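Q: I'm writing up a methods section and want to include an example of the input and output format. Could you take the sequence below and give the corresponding predicted structure tokens, formatted cleanly so I can copy it straight into the document?
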Amino acid sequence: MKYLNYILLCISLLFTSNAFALEQKYHESVLPVIAAFKTQDKTEIAAHIRYPLKRQYPLPDIKNEAEFINRFDEVFDDELVAVIGSSNINTDWDSVGWRGIMLNSGVMWIDTDGKIIGINSHTAKEQAFAKRLIEQDKQSLHSSINTFEEPVLDWKMANYHIRVDDLGDRNYRYAVWSIDKKISDKPDMVLLNGDITFEGSGGNHHYTFKNGRYSYILHVTIIGCDTSPPGWLEVYKDDEQLLKERVISAE
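A: Here is the clean output for your methods example:
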């Protein structure tokens, strides 16, 4: 989970100087969430989730209340439950405009309707689960790309299947297949030494990979509106845009 920790650190640093105090009108959205965690009522907490609840790839998203209750101890440990349940609405929560309301610089996010939209931490149980999934993931890939430290992106678009992996120390690798191929097939192209760039204070970012005069840019949406795609791919030859394609599904 080093990749997630790096993302969270950058987001936290950005929000430290940009967040502003929670307005009184949002207290009624936050207080029931705090109360549910204070009583450790899993059913009540589940009712305050905006589904599907995204988890970092390769962890599967949580699709509904029943699945959330079943996976509760995977997502929340005693320490995180205590942090939320004992949080002070006047000092620990901040409104960040259209992005929502965050606890402790982004540990957890809720929207203005009082629904939890993001939990940016990982318990030891969830990390162990992710490690098992990563090993399974490696076995499903072509032998030329089944060595990496952490998976970062797994995107499907109308014409392409793209994945990005961290080979270690934020050395990013890009692999792409035509959409009709399997990931067990050899990729159509592999690029190394990708860079990550953060955009503003919302955590949205992009990866850039170079291949001679060609640039492949993968824009990742962390915080967007209801119609925002998970991301999109842009391909340039020098300064000329050759392709822009939205992500249809993202793991």
